[in-house]
## 1
Amino acid sequence: MIVRRLELVDFRSYPQAEVEFEAGPSVLVGPNGHGKTNVVEAIGYVATLGSHRVATDQPLVRFGAERAIIRCAIVHDERELLVELEIVPGKANRARIGRAPAAKARDVIGALRMVLFAPEDLALVRGDPAERRRYVDDLLVQRQPRYAGVRADYERVLKQRNALLRTAYLARKVGGSGGRTGDLSTLDVWDVHLAQHGADLIAARLDLCAALGTHVAKAYDAVSAGRGEARVTYEGKSWLEASPRDLDRSAIEGHLLTALGAARSSEVERGVTLVGPHRDDLTLTLGELPARGYASHGESWSFALALRLAAFELLRGEGIEPVLVLDDVFAELDVGRRQRLAEMVSPASQVLVTCAVEQDVPSSLAGIRYAVGDGLVTRVS
């Protein structure tokens, strides 16, 4: 799979831009702040309907414009598919697939598979659990697009349940010692829905983490030149004391319902849902120690790289090789890690690299070069 052409209208810093890509490595070179990352961010948006840089769509629309448009021509098995997305902040995005309107924007998920590594990915190792949950859920949706719906269903139920708990919490504060707690008569119903959708999501995460394990260990070994053993473990701390790796979906649902019942008084007291996959985490381990808090800067970079390279290998091994994007990462790596990373990714069908200094990119990634600046992306070699 490759991206053959990308067209942007009022996306980020670009009033209009069009770039033709080819298979193999492509390097976008330009000063910081001139739009290199904007190009790969647009490609990532086609793949995931989200940005790796911001949580909302508003910053994606050029200042003064009402909407942004991304058109992306994707080639897979010698067949080309055109995907178009219209981003309108505050409203539902609109999509076209092969020039026909899509019923929902999320219908485009699966048309493009992409794995992106960026400086922000250091947070996968050093950041909060939400960063790691997003990593595993985004990969889950790329692997099996139907989980975009499962994820959305769980988030909808969680929002409704939190609203009910929040109302009860506020009523209790107003009621004071009188014990007024608001109407919680429907909370049992929301418990059932949350356990059902939560079990679907957790079971899929467990399956994904099991498939990732070997790839993560192999990628870390390669990037770090054999200096440590990396492991990934799924932790359901809010609903199970032990590791959930051996549980099936039905057992997970039962544990969630039990944990929700046990946490009821605490949830009413705090006005928020305390049980479910939205509170789970991935434990990243180097040797016998957790990577978070113990790994050095170089080890943390290697682990973050290993997570993305493992995702790439997993997707490639399941039949569709994704586009690989390395966004401004070579400047963050020492010479040894640069060279090892380049050697690992150079055989990929398509690798898109951004950098401020061309000399940061190893010669083994020789390929097409583009100059980025003044609102233009120009092929120079």
## 2
Amino acid sequence: MINLHLLRNCWLEIDIDNIKNNYNEIIKFKKPNVKVMAVVKANAYGHGIIQCSKILEECKADILGVGNAKEGIKLRNNNIKLPILIFASNLIKEVGSVYSENNLIPTILTYEQAKVMSDIPSNKPHSIFIKIETGRGRIGVNAEEMIDFVKKIKELPNISIGGVYSHMADANWADISGKYSLWQYERFKRFIEELKNNGIQIPFLQLANSGGLIAYPEIQLTGVAPGSTLWGYSALEKREEHPNLKSVLLSWKSRLLQVKETMGGKYGEKFKAIRLKRPKRIGVIAGGLSDGIDHKQAIGGEVLIRGRRVPIASSISIEHSIVDLSDFPEATIGDEVVIYGKQGTEEITLDEICKLWDRTPLEFLTSLNLNLERVYFKDNAIYSCDTGGELKTLQ
């Protein structure tokens, strides 16, 4: 059992060696001289952005992609030196100085945003990236309008266009979604040809995400942006040529805070508050809706205690869950509880929990609360702990 002074007995256990494994597996598909933008948005897909970014910096990633400026500032405050791209998340005009002061790269969608950055005094040109919309149907300048947009931006002083990136809508094997993926590539490719015709060079050009990198080597351009595969999950149908990925999240654990007999509570049909005819033995664990546990966990959900499955007994509350210990007299206060992961010979798998909660793996991971303490393992030993934004190295 973890012997740490955790402020809350609900925590995640994460294997940082598996991040290295996944990175090394992914870049086997990368062509020489193609740069890697490691995507660590959404708190590194729930795994903790500080420690994960430090590992990816050790892996020699070229750029980090984050979801908002707050994440970028957090990385700078924790001595991450890599270039950091902020995906579109604000209008820039209100916070342009934040990008300059923290050496962060903004995503530009309008001329006005570029003008804001151009007007901020600087010893060197501000690096910006532009999002090109090739078919995801979301954020970005339409591919057919990009060349005129870039030419206009290049007229601004104090600006350097460091990259243009897009996002694949349906990155899967070519025999499944090839027509759409290649249509996106053709739109981007036409823009690249227009750049050449106008004598414009942009260092980082990226369409391929995790799936695109593996399934479409021809669309790597000069950059790739793996995301979900870094954490051990892929939307691609598993085939022989798929990389050998390992889950980075090992387990989600809690402890029994109280074991007692109760004469009433939210039990029975639809968990209505009822008076029980005889005492019911229950256990209360730290971990509820605010931590990311879905309310559907109450309908057929189980946890592991002392290597055996124990059913959830009541509706899930904001901070706690109740387990049924009617047939488990040995269970006692302080026992380790596994919400996801292995204990002894039993295991609650990702597939099991996602099916019960009706979520994809990434929906599950990104719903894990920022305040959950994250305990990191390296070489099968505890290496560091993130207590909600403050990383403490323990080795």
## 3
Amino acid sequence: MSSGRKFAKAGFAAGFAVRRRRCTIIAAMAVSVFLPIEVSEAGWLSDLLQNSPKHGKSPTHVTSRKPATLAKRAASPKPRTAKLAAPGPAKPVATKCDPSKFRLVLDVGHTAASEGATSARNVAEFVFNLRLAQRIEETLKADGFPETKLLVTEGKARPSLVKRVVAANELHADIFLSIHHDSVPNSLLENWEFEGKKSHFSDRFSGYSVFVSRNNPDFKTSLAFAELVAKEMKAQGLQYAQQYTQAIMGRYQHPLLNKETGVYSYDQLIVLRSTRMPAVLLEAGSIINRDEELRMDSPERQGIISNAVARAVREFCDTQPVLGPP
């Protein structure tokens, strides 16, 4: 064969190879336009370009199934459905406290058989407690709290404490408030005669005090209610008793939780630590102080204290969310 024919034949073969390579590239680009390319499978196009005759490999080796797979996916794409989380239990809805359903148990401190302290004029503390608790009950019911319950217990001192706790728990009360009147340790008493009878008094101390137990199952709420009661008592111009922090009180000495309002802790008191609801004890005033005894005996002072407690209950109810059904 002449050199001219050999040269022409070689040129024709080279041109054919170039045209074939261009067609392959154009076909690949066309496929890339119409097929969705995922990140994990996008390399097939570069593989196709790299496996051109330029790199010494025949294009017949580029027979990857990836283009066919992608074409199939493009023809019938799988719908993607969002996975919905399984519905959990419905949560209770917080609603405002309903005064018509709010239940406060007014515990009358002590019993007729165990009367508590004796006043400077020889009147039993139980008499003061019952009278004030009844007045508070009337005020609360008139103020829109009809579920207020007066709790009067019978029996000796310690058994009666257990009885009143059981009764309060069975009533499913929202708040337990025990009403008392204050005295002082016997070592601080002085003698005097009233109506021809030997009596005892102590004019050194006076004022109200509010107690909570840090062992109550809901101490935080107990303290919140105690703060409201003390705040309202103070707002009426009343002063709290400050002697409970002094060493002269002996075993009756208690930590002062709020020096502004007169809230103390009495951790081991049964009615405060054993009730299953927030519990507070109010010492309304000192009946061993001769002047304060007269004030505590007056309807005016009883009205002041009753209104203070009612306002505290109202404010407490307004700020306490009640969990209702979902």
